[in-house]
Amino acid sequence: xxxxxxxxxxxxxxxxxxxxxxxxxxxxxxxxxxxxxxxxxxxxxxxxxxxxxxxxxxxxxxxxxxxxxxxxxxxxxxxxxxxxxxxxxxxxxxxxxxxxxxxxxxxxxxxxxxxxxxxxxxxxxxxxxxxxxxxxxxxxxxxxxxxxxxxxxxxxxxxxxxxxxxxxxxxxxxxxxxxxxxxxxxxxxxxxxxxxxxxxxxxxxxxxxxxxxxxxxxxxxxxxxxxxxxxxxxxxxxxxxxxxxxxxxxxxxxxxxxxxxxxxxxxxxxxxxxxxxxxxxxxxxxxxxxxxxxxxxxxxxxxxxxxxxxxxxxxxxxxxxxxxxxxxxxxxxxxxxxxxxxxxxxxxxxxxxxxxxxxxxxxxxxxxxxxxxxxxxxxxxxxxxxxxxxxxxxxxxxxxxxxxxxxxxxxxxxxxxxxxxxxxxxxxxxxxxxxxxxxxxxxxxxxxxxxxxxxxxxxxxxxxxxxxxxxxxxxxxxxxxxx
Length: 483
Ligand SMILES: [Fe+2]
Ligand SMILES: [Fe+2]
Known about the structure:
This protein is mostly helical.
């Protein structure tokens, strides 16, 4: 079957890349498949593997109707390989090859760099499934449980997407990399996942919502810049992944938003004047706003680290080679080569954070991070609207980019959420005011009681405004009581 908008379901692996005509790659993927299922069963969602879950499956790449909703047992989910439609006469849009035909095969000189980009992206996909594997059993509703599993199966599909590229375009070393993607494990001492944030624990549902808001959004920015790639199969793969990714961030934004809504409602109902009276708010069985701020501080800082160092020759090389572009590259008005442009970079100058003009080419990571911060800020404003509407006097804000960093310009200093460099003594004194403490974690954990009645929600979170696939409020998203 040639490449089309519709997906071929006749092969074991649904696809729109003509796999049935490509026996070599089909065989390689079929050989990889049992290892993937093993991974899913042993390191994917804990429990619920025989439960019917109301999930969407990608059945087409038509933007107007690409998904179909139905009950499915997760191990039977059809993880497919789907690329966005090929654009006629697509060009390399940036770097030294700007204007040339986009590559349909891997350019020999960039093989190693390209493989590295695909492996790093691929590694994050199964990592988050591993991080979230324990959450099913404390789901605050069937609706939320379904959303968790939807995110998980789609991250699984994203792994398939990257593995397809490795098998199709990289031969033997591609196959080895595909094996390694199943061998590394989030948080493992010997074989951890490649990036820091993907080795952190996701201990509770608030962490999950913060993760899908902040860390999946890093994923969005990375996919957006890979979608600009001159290597056309990578571009098309990432473009389709972005359609799914939007739901992951929706889960995060609305999950945090519903938590805030419930907290504010409880504060008002109890007549609490001061929303920072943590003890009083916690007695109501909801998560106080200062703790929500600390959670946001942590997840934002961890996610900023994923952008790498502000100044990076690797990033410059990826760009000049036409492999990884900027966010919305083709909409930017400049020469798309950046040989003489500059870009303002936050740096430490005499113990203060200042903007310093640096060559735009080596500041590619900084620019993508700036775009990310602007994107994050929009959702935070929507959360503030929820607080405002409830008449509670509190505002959430993103911490400064220098706060709690492990990578880049600010890794060597301690900074407050306002971006002031502080001493180690001051940091030690203030740390528990700025980041979730052990006691905060214990309190949140105490609220994580499962709520699996149809249409019911745990007392710390509000019901969503609308159901998934427009289903009514009491819809049975997960058939928990029947296997
Ligand atoms: Fe993903
Ligand atoms: Fe995602």
